[in-house]
Protein 1
Amino acid sequence: MTIENAPEPTITDRAAFEADLAELRAREKAHTRAGDAIAAARRRLPVVEVDAGIPLIGADGPTPLIDTFGGRHQLIAYYFMWYPGRPAAEQCEGCTWNNTQLDELSYVHSRDITYAVFCQGPTTRVSATATSWTGRCPGTPHSDHSTPSWSIERSA
């Protein structure tokens, strides 16, 4: 459908409009409540313990998962969808956009949180791509001005 062949809205009186609007608002509220219930159920899901020693490959070689926290108590791990064999400009558009928006990490660091990017891919390519997001060198989780990146190695 294009703007040229889009159907024209029906013209009605104020009372009919208000009735239709009230019905739509009731449906919207039900939709919101259903979404809230789903979100609450997600928050109540049990958690799975993760081995803190799982190796990730960073700029400085293998790194245990626990070290990616950079000495902080919380970790925001962004999983970047990686396209093997593609240059930085052809990696996931949404992931690239999201990570180029991170210019200053001191705010999250001041709240005892580390932000890191995880993805599957060759470490040298991942590091080069991460550097292209911010123009800064990744892999230094203790610096307020870098986005550390690690590759996740998975056995076949």
Protein 2
Amino acid sequence: MGRLINNFRPYARILLVIWVILIIILAILPNLPTPRIGGRLIPIRLDYPIHYLEHTLLAFLAVISFVYDRRQLTRILITLSTLIAFAVFSEMLQLLIPARTFEFKDMFLNIAGIITGTIIALAVTADQKLSETTKTQR
């Protein structure tokens, strides 16, 4: 797994930039269409899981891009702080768009996704360190 993550890092940075741009575009687009099934509105709000998942992927890509070892506490905290600031910014940006609204639920889900993505990425990074240690002991 460690070699896979190391090979993926340069691409993760490129995907991270693309993903940030996509999140900003989605945050400023007015009146996004409401999904329908068979012409009827879906009775649940799909934007909640979308907020969560888009920020989970954002955090995963950011941590894989900038944190090489889970013992780098300073890098982890800087990355996490930057991601949370971005989540707040992307939600507050909607205050400036006439057809969009700021919602605390969305911001909470953004931050929950960031925490989840960070934990997943750190788990993968920890696995990478473990696999490198195991190889050197052989």
Protein 3
Amino acid sequence: MTNQNKSSWLKKAGIAACGAALLLLFLVVFLPAMLPWPRAFDSNEWKSCTDHSIRYAMHKDFLSRHSVIGMTEASLIALLGKPDGRKPDEELSWDMGQAGGMDDNAIDFRLKEGKVVSFEVWGH
């Protein structure tokens, strides 16, 4: 290998290494900051967000911090705001956007006598 070939090869290897380092920096530092999850539950943010994937980012924290089974419909609405879907005295549903995939995500709470008896997170 001539000196000119070595120099050219080293230059290309250096450019490739810099590119790989920049990609790694992006993946480790910037990408997680751009993703909305996981996120601490904030009732006001849940109620006011226009990007419902933010709700998806908060739902696990919400469920870990609040005992929803046995919770009254009024208490649930006080925390999550007006539901996006409802069947009176039967089910309340909140949209959680398309976070993490192509399917719509939602959380449904089933009611009996005005209290939550079960819930389901679907689409994830």
